[in-house]
Amino acid sequence: NAGVTQTPKFQVLKTGQSMTLQCAQDMNHNSMYWYRQDPGMGLRLIYYSASEGTTDKGEVPNGYNVSRLNKREFSLRLESAAPSQTSVYFCASSGGTGNQPQHFGDGTRLSIL
Amino acid sequence: GENVEQHPSTLSVQEGDSAVIKCTYSDSASNYFPWYKQELGKRPQLIIDIRSNVGEKKDQRIAVTLNKTAKHFSLHITETQPEDSAVYFCAATASGGSYIPTFGRGTSLIVHP
Question: Do B98 and A90 touch (CB under 8 A)?
């Protein structure tokens, strides 16, 4: 099993450009999440999807949109990238019952100039 | 909402010493408490978790204790080794809601050979 797969692994954008981060899991998990990680800030939740067909805002949703394409895939879109969105982005999935661990992808390192 | 405080932010020990990281949480409905280890440049990975129906859980050199009355839980690592050097995150999840974990800000553990 691959677990959680994120693409791309690295990306450099110019301010104002758009891009979509892709995430797919093969564990038949109901819940999927997008986090950003900045130095000293831990993991901050951007958006999550408790189940296929639903999405909800997390702690820091401004400037992002998401799509739960199907049970396996959950994408994160930056419509107009800003330097403040330079970060490491992690996708995660879990069984979704509240007492199951999260499985993380390897992350996307995004720099916005 | 839930609030998780994690201390210390940095912990430096000599190889062979024990290390203890503490977390407190605010929501008495929280009942699942995982710990994740994140090595430099890698993804967070679950190392141990505890559910509210037990007070302690061990797995070789690591253990987690939970005090529901005081709303705190701790990670204990004995006989530390250089490969234990990493950032450790605690989290708390409440049942009956959206099952979104709240993370602590992380502890950077440095084990000196």
Answer: no
| pLDDT, tens digit, 9 for 90 and up, residues B15-68 | 999 999 999 999 988 999 999 999 999 999 999 999 988 899 999 999 999 999
Q: Calculate what percentage of chain B has a pLDDT beyond 90.
A: 82
Cα dist from B32 to A53, A54, A63, B76, whole Å: 25, 23, 31, 17
Question: Would you say A102 and A33 are in contact if contact means Cβ atoms under 8 Å apart?
Answer: yes
DSSP chain B: ---EEEE-SEEEEETT--EEEEEEE--TTEEEEEEEEE-TTS--EEEEEEETT-SEEEETTEEEEEETTTTEEEEEE-S--GGG-EEEEEEEEETTS----EE---EEEEEE-
**B-side interface with A, Cβ within 8 Å?**
9, 31-32, 34, 36, 42-46, 49, 51, 89, 93-101, 103-106
CA distance A45 to chain B (A): 9
- Residue environment code for B55-82, b if the CB has 16+ CB neighbours within 10 A, otherwise e: eeeeeeebbbbbeeeebbbbbbbeebee
* Amino acid letter for position A41: M
Give the residues across from B49 on adjacent strands.
Answer: B34
Quick count: other Cβ atoms within 10 Å of Cβ B35? 23
